[in-house]
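Chain A, query sequence.
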Amino acid sequence: MNIYTTIQGDMWDSIAKKVYGTEKAMDILMKANPEHLTVAVFGAGVEILLPQFTVQEAASNDMPPWRK
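Chain A, predicted structure.
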């Protein structure tokens, strides 16, 4: 698993976009880093675990619960 070190002002969606190319991966990042769930805007130097995932996993987060 790779690690991303935040810069001041990073947010979950912006990290997902930078690292994976899509904000849809935000949920996957959050599940891999539960100790940071209370953070909305990161300070500099926080290490975030970057799990591997498939495009289908990220896309499935768009579906409402009744369609999953």
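DSSP finds three helices and two strands in the chain. Residues 58 and 64 are 13 Å apart (CA to CA).
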